[in-house]
Amino acid sequence: MSDRARWAVLGAGVITGDFVAALPQAEHGVLHAVGARDGMRARAFADAHGAPVAGTYDEVLARGDVDAVYIGTVHTTHAELANAALAAGKAVLCEKPLGVTVSETEDVLAHAGGVGLPVVEAFKYRFGPFADRLRALISAGVLGELISVDSTLGFAASVHEGRLFDPEIAGGAILDVGCYPASLVVGLAAWAGIDAEPVVVEVDGVVGAVDEQARARIAFGAFEARIATAITADLPRTAVIRGTAGVLEIANVWGSRIVSTADAVLRRPDGSVEHIRTPTVSPMAAEADATILALRDGRTEAPEMPWLHTRTTARLLADWRAALG
């Protein structure tokens, strides 16, 4: 590997464009190649973003001058492309969800473990100073024992067609955006030392060709999570975490593709209020750097999104979807 790792991106869509735009802010990697199903589309995307190499997925993965791969394609291709990248000796940063099913997710992680290469599920809100501060607060017991969390993420799509509404490519709210609050509650439970498996207690929502809106109440033992998501309704980007020693209110827990979260408010039972503010970073650049640091250190996981969280989130999403029908 050169001083700065050489990235290939697979997929030439909007989210891949956002990743490429963020990559110059990364410390440990640069854009080198673009892969797409259509080599001509890959070449056009590469020319637009200054990548010297372009080709089909297979052509890009066969190259010896690619160290890591970012996967920004539709959900149903994530596991297949991740396995192909691992087989070609590349580290993988894959957009969520890593697999559409639990078995797909487990297969990719088993493959990565076998070849000793990193796989990082790209939940960008997990990376950066605010994410580090949140983990530290929960792990240190600043909120006391966790009681509950309420968290939502949803938007009203301008048109009801395309990948979001196509069941053949795993469209729907839960896998596209509901995975964010699901992964958050998994993280909170783990950081608080709660080892109970999540149980979906109650669900409701709106289901057409795909799940358009969905809510769930989830129990991690005595810790309760209430989460909601939508692709046909705007929902707040918030999280409210309640514990025996305080309440943490996060107005924009997810940040954006451009800038990470900065602010939260901690309210204690005695009425005191602490305003928490952290520096911001490009979260997509931060997740890229976490992947390369794992590769250089010989680790298969990034601590921000460890495989245990990926596995538990995959099971929770599958249970939520099955319960909603």
What features would you describe in this structure?
With 325 residues, this protein is of the alpha/beta class. The protein has two domains: 5-122, 3-Layer(aba) Sandwich (Rossmann fold); 125-284 and 312-324, Dihydrodipicolinate Reductase, domain 2. It is built from nine helices and 15 strands. The protein has helices at residues 14-22, 39-49, 57-61, 78-87, 102-115, 129-139, 173-191, 283-297, 307-324; strands at 5-10, 29-36, 53-56, 68-71, 91-94, 119-121, 146-156, 199-207, 211-220, 223-230, 232-235, 239-243, 246-250, 263-267, 273-277. The strands form two sheets. Strands 7, 8, 9, 10, 11, 12, 13, 14 and 15 form a nine-stranded mixed beta sheet that branches. The protein has a six-stranded parallel beta sheet with strand order 3-2-1-4-5-6, with helices on both faces. Strand 14 (263-267) and strand 15 form a beta hairpin. Helix 4 (78-87) runs parallel beside helix 5 (102-115), helix 5 (102-115) packs antiparallel against helix 9 and helix 7 crosses helix 9. The longest helix has 19 residues, at 173-191. It starts with a strand and ends with a helix. The mean pLDDT is 97.
